[in-house]
C-alpha cells in the first residue's frame, strides 16, 4: 500500500549522508507514483509534488545535517496542509437547535453516521433529535429507530408516505418544541447522482436552513468519492465532509484529495460499523498514519475515552483521601481491558517495527492480568480494603484459592503499594492542573 511505498522511499533518503538534486527528484518521482496509485486526484498530486520539490531542493535542506529527515518532514508538513492543516469541528449554532443535515449516495453510511454523530454529541451533554427523512429505501426509518434506541436518542418520523421536506420541517419544529440542542436529519441517497435527488435535498436545505450540511462519502471508493464530493458541493454548498469506512482497505486517496478539490474540510471519519467507531479527523494524525509514523495521539485519545470519566474522578478523590483499595485496583484493571487487545494499542506507537511484534509474547501480559485478578478475587472484602492485615496464613489461603503461589501474592501486594504511592503523587499533580475538557 501507500504507506509501505512511502516508507521504502524514505528509507533510501534517510540512508544518504548528503542529498543531491537528483536524489530528491528520484524520491519525488516515487512519492508521485505512490500517491497516484493510492487514487489521489492527479492535479492534487501534481501541485503537491511541486510544493514539496520546491522546498526540498532549497538551501535549508541541502545544508542540513540530516537532509533525508528534512525532506520527510517537508512531505509531512505539506500533506497536513493539503488535508486542511488542522481539525475542523462541528459548528454549533448560537441559536438552538443546531440543524445538521446529512447527505450522500446510498450505502455511503449516512444512517449509521447520523447515530454515530448523535452518540458523539451526547457525550458533550447535547440533547439530540434524529429525523428519519429517507422514505425511499425499504426499512430506512426502522434502521434509524433501532440505532436511536441503542443510544437512547429519540427518532422523529412521519412514516414513509410523507414528503421528505415536510418530515424535515416538522422534525425541526419538534426539536424546537422539545428544546433539543441538535437535530440530525438523515436523508435519502441514490446509487448515482441524479437531478431528482439533488432537487429534493436542495428543497430540504432551503426549508430547514441547516447550520451544517455534511456530505457522507465512502472512502473505499477512492477517486469516485472525490468526484461525488465535488458534485454535491456544487449543488448543495456543503459545509464539510465525513469519510466513512476508513477502517477498510482504503487506499487513502479520498482522505488526501477531498479538501484540496472541494475546499471543504473533512470533519469526521467513520472507522467501523459500531456506533462508537467515529473519530474526529485530524489532518496531522492522518498524515502520520499515511506516512507510517504511527499515531501516538490517537492512542492517547483512545485511552482517555475508554476510561470512564466519572470513575476516574471517583478514583482521584479516593486517592486524595488515601482510600484507594485493592478493589479499586481491580476495577482499574478492568477499565484497561476495555481498551482492547494490547497488540492493537502497541501497533499505534510510532517508529515501532511491527513486523517483530509477533515474536513478543503479549499474551504473557494478559495472563499476568488474569493472575492478579484471581488473587484479588480470592481475598475477603476486609483484606481488599486493608491489605496490611494479610499475614502469612492469609497469604497461604489466598494463594491456594487463586491457584497461585505465596510469591505471586507478595508480588501483587508490593506492586499495589507502589502503585498506590505513585498514583497519590499523580493525583496531587492533577489537582493542580486545570482539566481541559472537550468543547465545541
Ligand atoms: P446509507 O445508505 O448512506 O444510510 O448507509 P448506511 O448507514 O445504511 O450504511 C451502509 C453500510 O455501511 C452498513 O452496512 C453499515 O454498517 C456500513 N458502514 C457504515 N459506516 C461504516 C464504517 O465506517 N466502516 C465500516 N466498515 N462499515 C460502515
Ligand atoms: Mg440510510
TrEMBL record:
Its main location: cytoplasm. Its EC number is 3.6.5.4. It is an enzyme of class 3 (hydrolase). Keywords: Cytoplasm, GTP-binding, Hydrolase, Nucleotide-binding, Ribonucleoprotein, RNA-binding, Signal recognition particle. GTP binds at residues 104-111, 186-190, 244-247. It holds the Pfam family SRP_SPB. Residues 265-278 form the SRP54-type proteins GTP-binding domain. GO terms for cellular component: signal recognition particle. GO terms for molecular function: 7S RNA binding; GTP binding; GTPase activity. One of its GO terms (biological process) is SRP-dependent cotranslational protein targeting to membrane. The keyword Nucleotide-binding applies. SMART domains: AAA, SRP54, SRP54_N. Gene3D superfamilies: P-loop containing nucleotide triphosphate hydrolases, Signal recognition particle SRP54, nucleotide-binding domain, Signal recognition particle, SRP54 subunit, M-domain. It catalyses: GTP + H2O = GDP + phosphate + H(+). It is found in: Cytoplasm. InterPro entries: AAA+_ATPase (IPR003593), P-loop_NTPase (IPR027417), Signal_recog_part_SRP54_M_sf (IPR036891), Signal_recog_particl_SRP54_hlx (IPR013822), Signal_recog_particle_SRP54_M (IPR004125), SRP (IPR004780), SRP54 (IPR022941), SRP54_GTPase_dom (IPR000897). Composed of three domains: the N-terminal N domain, which is responsible for interactions with the ribosome, the central G domain, which binds GTP, and the C-terminal M domain, which binds the RNA and the signal sequence of the RNC. Part of the signal recognition particle protein translocation system, which is composed of SRP and FtsY. Belongs to the GTP-binding SRP family. SRP54 subfamily. HAMAP family: SRP54 (MF_00306). NCBIfam families: ffh. This is Signal recognition particle protein. It comes from Caloramator mitchellensis.
Amino acid at each position: 500500500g501507500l504507506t509501505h511505498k512511502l516508507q521504502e522511499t524514505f528509507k533510501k533518503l534517510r540512508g544518504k549522508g548528503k542529498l543531491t538534486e537528483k536524489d530528491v527528484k528520484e524520491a519525488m518521482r516515487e512519492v508521485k507514483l505512490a500517491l497516484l496509485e493510492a487514487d489521489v486526484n492527479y492535479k492534487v498530486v501534481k501541485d503537491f509534488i511541486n510544493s514539496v520539490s520546491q522546498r526540498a531542493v532549497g538551501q535549508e535542506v541541502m545544508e542540513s545535517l540530516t537532509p533525508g529527515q528534512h525532506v520527510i518532514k517537508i512531505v509531512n508538513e505539506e500533506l497536513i496542509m493539503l488535508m486542511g492543516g488542522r481539525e475542523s469541528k462541528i459548528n454549533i449554532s448560537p441559536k438552538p437547535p443546531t440543524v445538521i443535515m446529512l447527505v450522500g449516495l446510498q450505502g455511503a453510511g449516512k444512517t449509521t453516521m447520523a447515530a454515530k454523530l448523535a452518540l458523539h454529541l451526547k457525550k458533550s451533554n447535547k440533547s439530540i433529535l434524529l429525523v428519519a427523512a429517507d422514505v425511499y429505501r425499504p426499512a430506512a426509518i426502522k434502521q434509524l429507530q433501532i440505532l436511536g434506541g441503542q443510544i437512547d436518542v429519540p427518532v422523529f418520523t412521519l412514516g414513509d408516505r410523507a414528503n421528505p421536506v415536510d418530515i424535515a420541517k416538522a422534525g425541526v419544529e419538534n426539536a424546537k418544541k422539545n428544546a433539543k440542542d441538535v437535530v440530525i436529519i438523515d436523508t435519502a441517497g441514490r446509487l448515482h447522482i441524479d437531478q431528482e435527488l439533488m432537487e429534493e435535498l436542495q428543497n430540504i436545505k432551503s426549508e430547514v436552513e441547516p447550520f451544517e450540511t455534511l456530505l457522507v462519502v465512502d472512502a473505499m471508493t477512492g477517486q469516485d468519492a472525490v468526484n461525488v464530493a465535488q458534485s454535491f458541493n456544487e449543488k448543495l454548498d456543503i459545509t464539510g465532509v465525513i469519510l466513512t469506512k476508513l477502517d477498510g482497505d482504503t487506499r487513502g486517496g479520498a482522505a488526501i484529495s477531498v479538501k484540496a478539490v472541494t475546499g471543504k474540510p473533512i470533519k469526521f471519519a467513520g472507522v467501523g460499523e459500531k456506533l462508537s467507531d467515529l473519530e474526529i479527523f485530524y489532518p496531522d494524525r492522518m498524515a502520520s498514519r499515511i506516512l507510517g509514523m504511527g499515531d501516538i495521539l490517537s492512542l492517547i485519545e483512545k485511552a482517555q475515552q475508554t476510561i470512564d470519566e466519572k470513575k476516574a474522578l471517583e478514583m482521584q478523590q479516593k486517592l486524595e483521601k488515601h482510600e484507594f483499595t485493592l478493589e479499586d485496583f481491580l476495577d482499574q484493571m478492568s477499565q484497561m481491558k476495555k481498551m482492547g487487545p494490547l497488540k492493537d494499542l502497541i501497533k499505534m506507537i510510532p517508529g515501532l517495527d511491527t513486523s517483530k511484534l509477533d515474536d513478543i509474547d503479549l499474551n504473557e501480559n494478559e495472563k499476568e492480568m488474569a493472575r492478579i485478578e484471581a488473587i484479588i478475587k480470592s481475598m475477603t472484602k476486609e483484606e481488599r480494603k486493608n491489605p496490611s492485615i494479610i499475614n502469612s496464613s492469609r497469604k497461604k489461603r489466598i494463594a491456594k484459592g487463586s491457584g497461585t503461589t505465596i510469591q505471586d501474592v507478595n508480588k501483587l501486594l508490593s506492586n499495589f503499594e507502589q502503585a498506590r504511592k505513585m498514583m497519590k503523587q499523580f493525583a496531587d499533580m492533577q489537582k493542580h492542573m486545570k482539566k481541559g475538557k472537550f468543547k465545541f
